[in-house]
């Protein structure tokens, strides 16, 4: 009897373990058990419930610069959201339309931009006045399609300027009632670090921030959350709950389609997802035609609506970049004003709304879950000019260096596969692609 009970309990435990293992494998990759390279499955799952974000949550400025005593400083704090707090105060100002001024030279423009006793809220790509109205609860009526990438606030009061690097322009807004007391209090918050900077024109349409001396930024560690692909299949390929999804397994990739115009490719190693819908894209022979019809404001709003509809967590996600060449709008996760950049699209969402009705999304199933202690480790970065010179000395053409920025690199933790380290470093937009400057230097060192 004892042996019989032992065998019964043992068999039950083994059965449960096998069940759990199979369930985990299916959850991680629903195509794992497809014997054929092409099969048909159906899904009726609904998207995961997440809190929807507003435009004012995602289209906030990314960085704050203080112009003081003839010097400009980027303000950094790992305890306070300086830029977010200043943005809230900006939304409380009562602004009125004013005048537009164009500066003839870069020198004149930079003198205006760095005027003493002022604060600058900056984006990395342009937004419009119409979008500014929505983000900052304003009612400006003029120049709705005016594009700008900085907001200049002279601390003596009286005016706010929407400033464009691309056109060297400043749209002056008058302040009906000055209330800069809280703005000044935020700038003087304890624990705010001042990083000395200057500006350089590495490309024609934007000034690049150069840190003039070495500085230290904290490292962070997070638990990784890998999302299940099933909700995205339901949301993007089977939104009506009636389609059959075809699955095709290739080397390191799984390709899903619904038999119409939707296609989703998942990299099984990195978790990167590329979704394409060509429902209303016009064709000219074998070539897809993408008509440029949407205005910039409408394009940004549409991309945000599509991002929200994905059903992903958008905490700390901000509007990061816009590419005129293919209408791609990029959103990234940010830490203390610095973006997370990785070649496998971790913490990145690329939305390409095709003007004829189609769309393309690139994102990752891997996301950040909760922070874990990192021991207070910091990384010391050199002055930007040093980085620039090292790249030139290594043989990289200055004409191909379009921009340099400080960002956090996603690295696998050496102690646990469930944890990633976010390490501050310089990223270089070289030949149209963002790459870590240390990786660029390694390539030349190895002869690649």
Automatic annotation (TrEMBL):
Residues 12-443 form the Regulatory protein YycH domain. Keywords: Membrane, Transmembrane, Transmembrane helix. InterPro entries: YycH, YycH/YycI_2. The chain crosses the membrane at residues 7-28. Gene3D superfamilies: YycH protein, domain 2. This is YycH family protein. It comes from Liquorilactobacillus satsumensis DSM 16230 = JCM 12392.
